[in-house]
Design a protein that fits this description.
- By secondary structure, this protein is mainly β.
- It has four domains: 271 residues, Sandwich (Immunoglobulin-like); 99 residues, Immunoglobulin-like (Sandwich); 106 residues, Immunoglobulin-like; 75 residues, Immunoglobulins (Immunoglobulin-like, Sandwich).
- Helices cover 5% and strands 48% of the residues.
- The strands form twelve sheets. The chain has a five-stranded mixed β-sheet, with no helix packed on it. Strands 9, 13, 14, 18 and 19 form a five-stranded antiparallel β-sheet that branches. Strands 23, 24, 27, 28 and 29 form a five-stranded antiparallel β-sheet that branches.
């Protein structure tokens, strides 16, 4: 029989046979159930990336046994990445919030299948330990020239199933969809610059909303069904996205009806007529360098969309449209596999947007030019004397905002838990010594501070050193603070004299205080010299010319001085 699958006339052929003419590859041994975890999500759901993370971890812990299907539906999806199937699937779960999920659409307690993300792991373990009345296996081919997909699904019933009619489902799933997502910091492994890598995304149900009927469900029954489907250039409704063959995979499962999935499997696909050598850049990822230098680090995300393994690549890259540079990489990327390759450390201008561009110009010793990828990064570094003043204007959800100040050793030296009202909050940032500090402002929901801002001022409270609007970040903003000196208003240090300054090979310290320790720091906060005891002379030999911070500790306290070496 024929059925119309979409507005473009794409049909599948479903053939039912009780005894197959071809090879029987499904197991006839009694087996436990596999898990189909349907996760309900949306791009405006702040905690959904945490659900993605949990689902990924469950699948990774049970390879070949747990299959994740991310269904974008409901108001949080904002009609992005939705399909014609999603709302009906979501509506039967009884969900009351997002992220939500079902594990084999089973009712574990109460009367609904909806589970919160904290329940998915234990529910999956329960299902994995249950005996299944039916085994499932699936194989197929995908022709890259015609985009024709052919799938054969086999079922074998090792016991009598309670329902005389079951439903067989085949879903098309897509990985590596790059787009927006609130709360991305809850799943940092999926962040791609300012965007997010969506995985396990439902794009289509070849067998329709609730699947194809299976009417032979008694012990010893063997069922085989075959499907042919020409994959269109794009999938999904109402906002279709490009259906990239290399990112598609297919999950088959059998259910008692619209609910209670018995077991599932991933379809083993043989790719036909693939290009032999075809590396693809899936974007660039900023590896945040949390120091006060001009260093930046970037990963190039590469997928091998060819049939040959990739063992060598040459990248051409640039910073802010500067002189192109090249980087030669060697390794191994198997067909249909992907990896992240870090470029050499980049030098960027701080406090300004810097566009990083990269493309592949050689693969396996052959000239090859990929599409160029770009990433805009901004490394915020504030320089000045301590103390400073922090002002944060929160939005109407003030309790979602918090901040921490990290010291040079990455220890928290100052913090707020959260704010209780929406207004301008002012804090003195006190630095115990010169060095490189990190201010981290977080929004727990993941949508920034709408209408608010984060500002840093000098100690006078009026000289502005840093300003960011509250929507310039989603979940987290990091600002590096290079503290050059720590000002101490203490008359006991007024008679201390540091000379010569600028110096050549040494500096002298003169005063009445009993000195206990003298330390010298560069402007990145790294200690480059130290002397202990009643030090009166500090050697500068071997140090590069430039500005340094000298920290003097005595019986009267601690103070710092700027020292310049010629």
């Amino acid at each position: 029989m024929k059925k119309i699958l979409s507005l473009v006339v794409l049909a599948f052929l479903s053939v039912f046979t009780v005894m197959a003419q071809g090879e029987q590859f499904v197991s006839t041994e009694v087996s436990n159930k596999n898990v189909v975890l349907e996760e309900y999500t949306g791009i405006n759901c702040g905690y959904c990336p945490d659900g993605h993370r949990i689902a990924n971890e469950i699948a990774a812990a049970h390879p070949g046994r747990v299959f994740v299907i991310n269904v974008h539906a409901g108001s949080y999806a904002a009609n992005t990445y939705t399909t014609q199937w999603g709302n009906a699937l979501a509506n039967q779960t009884g969900l009351t919030g997002y992220p939500a999920g079902t594990v084999n659409r089973h009712v574990f307690s109460g009367s609904v299948t909806d589970l919160n993300r904290g329940q998915w792991a234990s529910a999956s373990n329960t299902i994995l330990n249950q005996t299944s009345p039916v085994n499932i296996a699936a194989r197929g081919t995908l022709d890259w020239t015609t985009r024709e997909l052919n799938i054969t699904v086999q079922l074998y019933y090792t016991a009598n199933e309670a329902n005389s009619t079951n439903k067989l489902n085949v879903a098309i799933i897509q990985d590596n969809v790059i787009g927006s997502q609130s709360g991305a910091s809850y799943n940092p492994a999926q962040q791609v610059g300012s965007q997010y890598r969506h995985m396990h995304m439902l794009r289509h149900l070849i067998t329709g909303q609730w699947g194809e009927d299976v009417t032979t469900t008694t012990q010893g029954s063997f069922v085989e069904k075959t499907y042919s489907y020409t994959i269109p250039a794009s999938l999904g409704s109402p906002n279709a996205i490009a259906a990239k063959l290399e990112d598609l995979h297919f999950v088959a499962f059998v259910a008692q009806g619209q609910q209670e999935i018995l077991t599932g499997c991933e379809v083993e696909i043989e790719n036909i007529n693939m290009p032999t050598l075809n590396p693809r850049i899936d974007g660039l990822t900023n590896i945040e360098v949390q120091d006060c230098s001009t260093d930046a680090r970037v990963n190039v995300n590469v997928t091998n969309v060819g049939s040959d393994a990739i063992t060598a690549l040459t990248f051409q890259y640039s910073v802010a449209n500067g002189t192109p540079m090249t980087y030669d990489w060697t390794g191994n990327i198997a067909s249909m596999d992907n990896t992240s390759i870090e470029l050499p450390t980049l030098t960027v201008a701080t406090n300004t947007n810097q566009v990083i561009k990269a493309k592949i110009v050689n693969a396996n010793g052959q000239a090859f030019e990929s599409t160029e990828a770009s990433l805009t990064i901004k490394k915020s570094v504030v320089s000045g004397d301590g103390p400073m003043v922090l002002k944060i204007k929160t939005d109407t959800y003030a309790s979602e905002t918090s901040y921490k100040l990290y010291g040079p050793n990455n220890n928290v030296i100052q913090q707020s838990s959260s704010f209780t009202n929406s207004t301008v909050h002012t804090f003195d940032l006190n630095f115990p010594s010169p060095g490189c500090y990190r201010l981290q402002v977080k929004d727990s929901y993941g949508d920034g501070i709408s209408g608010g801002y984060i500002r840093i001022f000098a100690a006078d409270g009026t000289t502005q050193l840093f300003n960011a609007t509250g929507t310039s970040f989603s979940s987290e903003l990091n600002v590096m603070i290079s503290v050059e000196t720590v000002d101490i208003d203490d008359e006991t240090f007024q008679d201390m004299l540091i000379f010569p300054n600028p110096a050549t090979n040494f500096v002298n310290i003169q005063g009445t205080a009993n000195i206990q320790q003298v330390e010298l720091f560069n402007l990145e906060g790294q200690r480059v010299a130290a002397e202990y005891g009643d030090v009166r002379t500090l050697s500068l030999e071997g140090l590069a010319s430039g500005m340094y911070i000298m920290k003097v500790t005595s019986d009267k306290g601690t103070t710092t001085y700027k020292v310049s070496k010629k």
